[in-house]
Amino acid sequence: MRIFGKTRHRPSADWRLVTDRAFTLIGDGRYEDAGALLTRAADLEPWLSESWFNLALLHKFRHDWEQARAAGLRAVALLDRSTGTPDWWNVGIAATALQDWALARRAWQAYGLRVPDAPPGDRPGRHVRAEPPTGMELGSAAVRLSPEGEAEVVWGRRLDPARIEVQSIPLPSSGRRWGEVVLHDGVPHGERTTASGHTYPVFDEIELWAPSPVPTWVVLLEAATEADRDALERLAADAGYAAEDWSSSVRLLCRTCSESRMPSDEGGDGPRHDPHDHSVPGHPGPLGHMTAGELWVPERECGLAAPAALVRGLLDGWVADSPDTREWRDLEEVC
Q1: Cα gap 214→230, rounded to integer Å
Q2: Which end of the chain has fewer CB atoms surrounding its CB within 10 Å, N or C?
Q3: Parallel, antiparallel, or unpaired for β 276-280 and 326-333?
Q4: Which H or E run contains 87?
Q5: Looking at the structure, do residues 249 and 156 belong to the same domain, yes or no?
Q6: C-alpha dihedral over 178, 241, 228, 200, to 10 degrees?
Q7: Strand, coil or helix: what is 215?
Q8: Three-state SS at 326
């Protein structure tokens, strides 16, 4: 774990020993013991911004956002320079977790990002404002759900520097749903490149920020052609929901590959048509996925994100449009 040093101040040997030991404990998941040591370090060198940055980082790991915000603000108050420091980014994450939008705007601006003007009534120094910093036009990215567990990389739309709205349909093992908003860390772990040459960062999820009321279903399709499969995806999208052919959109990757720069398996139309990744131990490589040039297999396992009252009607309507080439069976709610 890197500690950011300053040329103007030289922390004591005791501070370094205590801090190094604390980060060893953090690496072992012993957050409580690490917290006691980092608190001692802050007592030893209270004038050092790194003392409070490290405490803010620990509180972020623990998802203790009130403490992360307080320690982060103490850190930025002691900075030698005003922009571009990770201290401000951590403040922005904590403020976003707490929906303290005035502070989030201030943090992103202090980091050096261009943030649209705040709406009337959203004044600095007043916590928990109604309007987040929208309109930053950050584009698409990928997010690694459950990064410490059975990780899965899915595509999403960046709402601001710390939140992504999930636009893939995650596998049920992730416990996440289409349309959920997740809080994510600031440093990417990996990249995804499309055939068109665009590169997208992969961020690690910190926690669920806003749940989705839309359940996830799995269904077996008989789709005679790719066009038949595409028709279901369009039908779901037109209804305001989503369908995804998991038989071609999900690939298995080891963690090392997942955290590297990985090319897309499919066309250059952008994230909507690119695979998302399910990380597994070992090094299996991409397994069992349809890529360009392979024969089409009519039986497809499809994920659907739609309300219970609508999902069967979507499938029946899809079949009714071409009954000779389409069927469905074994619909099951999985998340």
Answers
A1: 21
A2: N
A3: unpaired
A4: helix 86-97
A5: no
A6: -50
A7: coil
A8: strand
pLDDT tens by residue, 187-224: 998 888 877 778 888 999 999 999 999 999 999 999 99
Phi-psi map region of 329: left, alpha, beta (phi>0 left; psi -120 to 50 alpha): beta
**Maximum distance among all alpha carbons in the chain?**
78
Per residue in 104-142, pLDDT tens? 999 999 999 988 876 665 555 544 445 777 667 788 889
Show the domain range for 48: 13-111
3 vs 201: CA distance, rounded Å: 24
Q: Which of 202, 205, 182, 198 is nearest to 258 (CA)?
A: 202
> Could you tell me which residues are beta bridge partners of residue 242?
305
Whether 119 is in a domain gets the answer no
* CA distance to 122, 123, 134, 321, per residue, from 130 (Å): 8, 11, 12, 44
Tokens at 111, concatenated: 């980091």
Query: CA angle, corner 214, sides to 183 and 96, nearest 5?
Result: 20
How far is Cα 332 from Cα 218, in angstroms, rounded to an integer?
Answer: 5
Q: How many CB atoms lie within 10 A of CB 15?
A: 20
Q: Is residue 130 part of a domain?
A: no
Strand partners, 219: 302
Is 227 in the same domain as 165? no
Q: Give the pair of three-digit tokens for residue 204.
A: 């690690």
Lowest mean pLDDT, pick from 4-8, 62-66, 174-178, 305-309: 4-8
10-14, 80-84, 148-152, 311-315 — which one is most confidently predicted on average? 311-315
Proportion of the chain in helix, strand, coil states, percent, rounded to 5: 35, 25, 40
Q: Which helix (DSSP H) or strand (DSSP E) does residue 318 occupy? A: helix 308-321
Q: Buried b vs exposed e over 182-216: b needs ≥16 C-beta within 10 Å?
A: bbbbeebbbbbebbeeeebbbbbbbebbeebebbb
Q: Please, are residues 48 and 32 in contact by the beta-carbon 8 Å criterion?
A: no
Lowest model confidence (mean pLDDT) among 10-24, 125-139, 285-299, 302-316: 285-299
Amino acid present at 140: S
